[in-house]
Amino acid sequence: MTGTDLTKPPRTPSEEDFAAVQASPQFQELRNRLRRFVFPMTALFLTWYLSYVLLGAYAHDFMATEVVGNVNVGLLLGLGQFLSTFVITACYVRFANKELDPRAAAIRNYLEGERA
What range does the domain containing 80 cover? Predict the structure, then answer.
């Protein structure tokens, strides 16, 4: 590779290129991997959040149960909501770095690269 190759702008894909890539098995695999992570994780988090809200609305005695000093179950479950958000984010970042980003980069390189 020469010095001029590094300054050359990437090829601009056409609408036909995007349509072809969208129909490709590589893109379908990328989309399927994303969905297999996002949908179950979303369902799990929404179930966890809805459970917390319902417990807060209907299980006052349970949520008011003191665990240590003035710290009760409701407070711990509320803090658990924040913790679970950070855990899910960390899991997604790890998943994306390992599974999604390499595939997306390959597709982008194909679209922006020189093709005959």
Answer: 14-112
